[in-house]
Amino acid sequence: MNNFSDATSCPVRNVLDRLSDKWTILVILVLGETGTMRFNEIHKQIGDISEKMLTVSLRKLEADGLISREVYPVIPPRVEYRLTALGQELLPLIDTISNWANRHMQQILTNRQQYNG
């Protein structure tokens, strides 16, 4: 059983903390749909993410081993990102949440409107 009260040793809290930022899930979904992508392609696909936040998100995902970053020694440098096996294993879970959100978004918006009066 997890000890949810200990933020440093609880795997659930640790992983959810990383995945629950505004952009991480979207980056994983984009790479999952498209495969290998360059920075500007990811940026264009997501749209409203700043270059700085995309860089931060990609670095965190790389540090966790969910994506790989390959730099090609050409001028100008070419860098490509793709999901690792670990990231691929996470993708069906995120797809499930994404599908749930798509199915229920209208009801959630209606509930919010009713709640806020």
UniProtKB/TrEMBL annotation:
One GO molecular-function entry: DNA binding
Domain HTH hxlR-type residues, every copy: 10-109
Taxonomic lineage of the native organism: Bacteria, Pseudomonadati, Bacteroidota, Sphingobacteriia, Sphingobacteriales
Pfam families noted in UniProt: HxlR
Keywords, comma-separated and alphabetical: DNA-binding, Transcription, Transcription regulation
Superkingdom, taxonomy of origin: Bacteria
Name of the protein in question: Transcriptional regulator, HxlR family
InterPro entries documented for this protein: HTH_HxlR, WH-like_DNA-bd_sf, WH_DNA-bd_sf
